[in-house]
Amino acid sequence: MATKRILLEVGTGNDWHGGSYTKAAVRAVEDAIHHSSLVLLKTLDLDPSKMLVDVKIGVQQPEKVDPAAVKAVLPHGQITVEVVKGGLNAANTGPDDISIIAVAAITVHLDLA
């Protein structure tokens, strides 16, 4: 299958006080998908389940992100989630209170043959 990239979108998300890397990652994905609209799917009568959706999340502690929770946010496609070291932890009101900031990059590919 010869696929073509039809979308690259980025987003940021945070959890100011809860300490949840998953919550920050989910918010980053939600931010990214709210910046885009794949109108060509309807225009060209394409099946959204055929999309290949690759999600890359950057956070300071990748092992603390639940990839299944991130995947659940996306409504269509064959989804893969990769979590890598990135993002930012920012000091908040004290040493045990950090703000977690996640970055998401979403690419979508389709077979347009």
UniProtKB/TrEMBL annotation:
Single GO molecular function: GTP binding
Highest taxon of the lineage: Bacteria
Organism: Afipia felis (Cat scratch disease bacillus)
UniProt lineage: Bacteria, Pseudomonadati, Pseudomonadota, Alphaproteobacteria, Hyphomicrobiales
Entry annotated with the keyword GTP-binding: yes
PANTHER family: 50S RIBOSOMAL PROTEIN L34
Identification of the protein by name: Uncharacterized protein
Keywords (A to Z) from UniProt: GTP-binding, Nucleotide-binding
Signal peptide: none
